[in-house]
Amino acid sequence: MLEWLRSNSQLLTGAALALISSLVPQFLALRWTMREARRKFLREKLVDIYCQIATLIAADIDHAKDQVAKWLDTPPVGERAEWAATWTKIQIDRSGVQRKLYGLSFQVRLLERDRRLANDVKQLADQPPFVIPVGDYWEVHDYLKKLEQQVADHEKRFHEICDQVLAVYGAP
């Protein structure tokens, strides 16, 4: 047996090299294909998450604007039951939106490679426009101005982040 191996060592070496040279490219091609499939999946997942975030933030901005409008249309003290119910519904809707937004923001932080974009989304989710108007009319009016400014700033940051997302994940 040993003699046979010595006499056929070149043949065995050639066969081993042929086997290795045919398997290595296949392995590398498989590895590359798997990496590309994963990259494509993560890209599609992030685009889906960003679309959901855009929908939720747009809804939150609309709810905040509704709150401002409701405070400007405050009825007299004795007629506030329906007004208060509507106000409460708006606030409950905003709370639900915020919970969903926090979850999506966390997913972005897990999946997004662009740390700046992930941090911008986190900041946008963590800082919704919110002011509690209390006190007499003039104090409430100042609070409403602050809330309107917060809504405008939030909307501006939202559009900036949308532009960043489009720059990264826009049409290929």
Task: Give descriptors for this structure.
single chain; 172 residues; 5 helices; mainly alpha
Annotate the secondary structure layout.
Blueprint: H1 2-7, H2 9-72, H3 81-111, H4 115-126, H5 137-169
What does the model show?
By secondary structure, the protein is mainly α. The protein is 85% helix and 0% strand. The protein has helices at residues 2-7, 9-72, 81-111, 115-126, 137-169. The protein has one domain. It contains five helices and no strands. The mean pLDDT is 82.
User: Between the first and last Cα atoms, what is the distance in angstroms?
Assistant: 61 Å
Number of helices: 5
Q: How helical, in percent, are the residues?
A: over 70%
The profile of the biggest β sheet is: none
Low-confidence regions: none
| Order of SSEs | HHHHH
Mean of residue pLDDT?
Answer: 82
Structural Rg = 29 Å
Secondary structure class reads mainly alpha
The shape is: rod-shaped
Beta-strand percent range: under 5%
Number of domains as seen in the coordinates: 1
Let me know the number of strands: 0
Structure in a nutshell:
With about 170 residues, this protein is mainly alpha-helical. Helices cover about 85% and strands about 0% of the residues. It has helices spanning about 1-5, 10-70, 80-110, 115-125, 135-170.
